[in-house]
Amino acid sequence: MVILQSQFDELLAFASDASLMPELLKAKAVYFGATGEVFEDDDSFEQRMAAFRDFYVFDWKIEDDAATPAERFWLRGQFACPDDAPLFEGFLQTWLSLWEVRKLGKESLRLRDLFTERDVEVFERRQLIGLSKGDILEARLLPMGEKRVLSDAVIFHPSVVRKAILAEIKRRKKYEPDFDWRAFVWSLSKMHLKFGRYRNISPEQIYDFPKK
């Protein structure tokens, strides 16, 4: 997210204002209550703090007006650089999901949203070490003009549980008309946290979905 960093920092400064601190704390309780409490010695500490930050800024509805911090910032319209307005408007259209890597390019990725089955081209200059076709990751896409880029909050699920995840999504979409995809994403995030802490337990045992 290097390309958007200065604009995101400006948005984050607004969202972290003391007047919004009670909202931030409520959002924190909800997010980590669902995904598991994280500690500084966890391998995924930085990614999880970034994922919480994104949830709070882009998704959390402030009680007073049911607007997210990003929406409030946009409506205020007081940007350090007026020319950045289109980028800040893009922050109202972020896209969190579980993605399957379909293709790896030199500065791009083709990802498939596992809930909508829609393919998306993503601009990505970073070298994501170990990333392979077929991998499943939790990530949020940020619009940048005509392109989309990845947020810093990317969580890679073990490749050995790929088939189990795909099968569970298929089952839930078939048998659960009101399938709560966000709750599912967060449940996998919690499993991933456990996977990082207990290397003596196989991923298959941790990513163990109820048999129904």
How do you describe this structure in short?
The chain has 212 residues and is an alpha+beta fold. Helices cover 42% and strands 17% of the residues.
Describe what you observe in this structure:
- This protein is α+β, with helices and mostly antiparallel strands.
- It folds into two domains: 2-156, OB fold (Dihydrolipoamide Acetyltransferase, E2P) (Beta Barrel), CATH 2.40.50; 159-206, no CATH class.
- 42% of the residues lie in helices and 17% in strands.
- The chain has eight helices and six strands; from the N terminus they run H-H-H-H-H-E-E-E-E-E-E-H-H-H.
- The chain has helices at residues 5-15, 21-35, 45-59, 69-76, 85-90, 162-175, 181-197, 203-206; strands at 95-104, 108-113, 119-123, 136-144, 147-150, 155-156.
- Strands 1, 2, 3, 4, 5 and 6 form a six-stranded antiparallel sheet that branches.
- Strand 1 (95-104) and strand 2 (108-113) form a beta hairpin.
- The chain is globular.
- The protein starts with a helix and ends in a 6-residue tail after the last helix.
- 27% of the residues are buried.
Count of folded domains: 2
State the fourth-level CATH superfamily of the largest domain. Answer: Copper binding periplasmic protein CusF
Q: In angstroms, what is the radius of gyration?
A: 18 Å
**Helix/strand/pairing category:** alpha+beta
- Low-pLDDT parts are none
Largest sheet: 6 strands, antiparallel
Termini separation:
40 Å
The CATH level-2 architecture of the largest domain is identified as Beta Barrel
